[in-house]
Write a structure and sequence with these properties.
With 247 residues, the protein is of the alpha/beta class. The chain has one domain (5-244): Ribonuclease Z/Hydroxyacylglutathione hydrolase-like (Metallo-beta-lactamase, Chain A). The protein has four helices and 13 strands. The chain has helices spanning 47-50, 152-169, 191-200, 214-227; strands at 5-12, 15-19, 24-27, 56-60, 83-87, 99-102, 107-110, 113-118, 126-131, 134-138, 176-180, 204-208, 240-244. The strands form two sheets. The protein has a seven-stranded mixed sheet with strand order 6-5-4-3-2-1-13, with no helix packed on it. A six-stranded mixed sheet has the order 7-8-9-10-11-12, covered by helices on one side. This is L-ascorbate metabolism protein UlaG, beta-lactamase superfamily.
């Protein structure tokens, strides 16, 4: 892989894999529909696939089932050098010496990757990492959760805590961001992503947290064009996106 490039693969929901010049990184793996599909082209990661991969790092932002799949811990049987960076709310049954439990507002370096953690507006944490010169942010469940069915006080509080967290992130260099775009929020489905893009200005913002609702990504792509946000429409599991930091 060219040092200035990364190959990004959409896995499912909030799951993405990122291959940089020297690392293979997986965020929030969750694949409930794997069935007999066993390849990265299907959005499925296996221990066999990772067996000969070098410098593998696996992140999970929190314990919710759609962000943490315990199957990730089985991968170390095939590749004992995998590093796991897990939110401290995850009760992982593993004896791996390479398992790192982290909370919000920590900084650490693992396998030459600089990691900084931030909070969430739900459970767990969000991640900002520097890998081979590329800065990557994964929001986890950090979002402006503006639910129409909640009271005004509840919606105001959701806005307050989201913007407070954004103040911690604003000013950070972000090349690639993975951020929730969730149409359960109705007209506010991309409110948080728009705010994040306006404050942080990532070179590429890719949607997540939409499950099988690929029209959410389609709608966001159209909205992003109007706002000058660089994105890619996600249409299927296993979709590859090439990011170049030179652009």
């Amino acid at each position: 892989m060219n040092p200035s490039k990364a190959k990004i693969t959409y896995l499912f929901h909030s799951g993405y894999a990122v291959e940089t010049a020297n690392h293979f990184i997986i965020f929030d793996y969750y694949q409930p529909f794997a069935a007999n599909n066993r390849s990265l082209a299907d959005g499925v990661v296996t221990g066999e696939f990772l067996k000969n991969k070098k410098n593998v790092m696996v992140f999970s932002s929190h314990a919710h089932a759609d962000h943490f799949d315990p199957t990730i811990l089985k991968w170390e049987k095939d590749n004992p050098n995998i590093h796991y960076i897990l939110s401290s709310d995850i009760q992982a049954k593993s004896k791996s010496q390479h398992l790192h439990s982290v909370s919000a507002y920590e900084q650490l370096t693992v396998d030459n990757i600089a990691i900084e953690t931030f909070g969430s507006t739900d459970q767990g944490i969000s991640f900002l990492i520097q890998a081979d010169g590329i800065s990557i942010f994964h929001a986890g469940d950090l979002n402006w959760w503006h639910w129409s069915g909640e009271t005004k006080e509840e919606r105001d509080y959701a806005e307050k805590i989201f913007k407070a967290e954004m103040m911690r992130i604003e000013g950070k260099k972000v090349d690639v961001a993975f951020f929730p775009v969730d149409r359960r929020l109705e007209e506010a489905y991309c409110l948080g992503a728009e705010y994040f893009a306006g404050k942080v200005k990532p070179k590429l913002l890719l949607p997540m947290h939409f499950g099988n609702d690929y029209d959410a990504s389609k709608d966001f792509t159209q909205r992003a064009k109007q706002l000058g946000i660089t994105t890619t429409q996600i249409s299927h599991k296993g979709q590859e996106i090439i990011f170049s930091s030179d652009k």
